[in-house]
Amino acid sequence: MTDGTFDGYGGRHVPDPLQEPLEELAAAYDDVAKSDAFRTELRDLLEEFAGRPSPLYYARNLSDRYGAEIYLKREDLLHGGAHKINNALGQALLAKRSGRDRLIAETGAGQHGTATAMVGALLDLETEIYMGKKDVERQEMNVFRMRLMGAEVNEVTRGDQGLADAVDAALEDFAENVADTHYLVGSVVGPDPFPRMVRDFQSVIGREAREQIQERTGGLPDAAVACVGGGSNAIGLFHAFRDDPVDFYGAEGGGEGSDSTKHAAPLASETGTDDVLHGMKTRVIGDDTEVHSVSAGLDYPGVGPEHAMYRAVGRCEYTGITDEEALAAFRELSETEGIVPALESSHAVARAIQLAEAGEHETILVNLSGRGDKDMETAASKFDLS
Ligand SMILES: Cc1ncc(COP(=O)(O)O)c(C=O)c1O
To answer: Where along the sequence do coiled-coil regions lie (predicted)?
Structure first.
């Protein structure tokens, strides 16, 4: 049993009508977590539908250039093009077992919405996605893809028209329709049990990577690096290494710089504060800051509570990677390895390059959380390659 907090962060800060449904969800999750039948069904779908295990790739050219051994965990090769499917499959199976016939989800970059639309079609569940208008415009093809798979996509026009507003809209829908609806939260955020449940579903990333790197190198990496939006791919990578002598590095959306007033780096920025957001106590960006990142998936004012705890206890170092640095890494990985990363994952690549240049780590494991196809239009507007 857990009270759903991480050294005081997290919890269940929601209005009364949501307390009971969340308690029921937590109990249902605790049950399936122990069920062999559930675990087998999920494992089979992860293999046959999603394409697990994802490969571990030694980035030869990048390693030669920077003088460190850089390994990429290729979540970009999964069905849908990102790690989001690991969690979407887990929660959709849970929803089905709990008798829910409707899924709702929020999405920023469109990757989680896409993953939800995929599992909605697979398991024959009615699916509705909330997405900020700003993100609908920059991720047009993902919106089309979700609709193609039968999901309804609702454009959210309130507030900044971004991910946080999409979460608000989805939470309202959930509160009105708890009887038949499962809110398929896309990251390690929100009220308990979401942060720990999403972590558990994503921790397959680190379990595989730990085995793969030991097989390949005979040891553990010195550092593990991942980008942090809500924080699910990062926690998914870190969890299996939490008791190992492996340094953790989180790369947040630094926007115009985490000391500027336009970024999405609540952990790296000096102006981040402890507050309650979307049902959890966590770290959020300061009031005078505009949430901004070149990548829609990192464009969120808060972060998962377990990361707030990791920061507080010094287990992980968080850095804001600027839009410019992320775009440079996006281009560099494309040119050196023939792999086009998602803009979100490019933040992790940029941080890994910084670490390799600093020369303090011999082996660096990077979570390549997604592929960059969805970002072609943004990239084409930034680079003139003619
Ligand atoms: C490819 C990719 N990586 C990372 C993220 C950030 O989410 P999280 O921090 O939960 O992994 C997203 C979010 O949409 C994404 O699409």
So the answer is: none
Element holding 363 (H helix, E strand): strand 363-368
| 92 pLDDT above the threshold of 90 | yes
For the chain, domain boundaries: 13-46+84-199, 52-82+203-382
The CB of 369 under 6 Å from ligand 1? The reply is yes
Mean pLDDT of the residues in the chain: 96
| Substitution candidate for ligand 1 out of 91, 146, 232, 239 with most atoms within 8 A of CB | 232
Given the residues 69, 106, 337, 344, the one annotated as active site: 106
DSSP calls for 36-98: HHHHHHHHHHIIIII-PSPPEEE-HHHHHHHTSEEEEEEGGGSTTSBTHHHHHHHHHHHHHHT
What number does the ligand 1 atom closest to the CA of 109 have? 14
54 is catalytic: no
Confidence of residue 10 (pLDDT cuts 50, 70, 90): very high
Residue 137 in tokens: 């415009």
- Equal fold, 13-46+84-199 vs 52-82+203-382: yes
* Ligand 1 atom 14, closest CA: 297
* pLDDT score recorded for residue 109: 84
Distance between CA atoms of 61 and 67, rounded to whole angstroms?
Answer: 10
Q: Are strands 223-228 and 247-255 parallel, antiparallel or unpaired?
A: parallel
What does the pLDDT look like over 32-58, one tens digit per residue? 999 999 999 999 999 999 999 999 999
Q: Using one digit for the tens of pLDDT, what is the confidence trace for 109-156?
A: 899 999 999 999 999 999 999 999 999 998 888 999 999 999 999 999
Q: Which CATH number fits domain 13-46+84-199: 3.40.50.1100, 1.10.10.10, 3.10.20.30, 3.40.1570.10?
A: 3.40.50.1100
Q: Is 256 annotated as catalytic?
A: no
Centroid of ligand 1 to alpha carbon of 386 (angstroms): 30
Asked if pLDDT for residue 1 goes beyond 70, the answer is no
Does the global pTM surpass 0.85?
A: yes
Class of domain 52-82+203-382: alpha beta
Q: 152 forms bridges with which residues in the sheet? A: 128
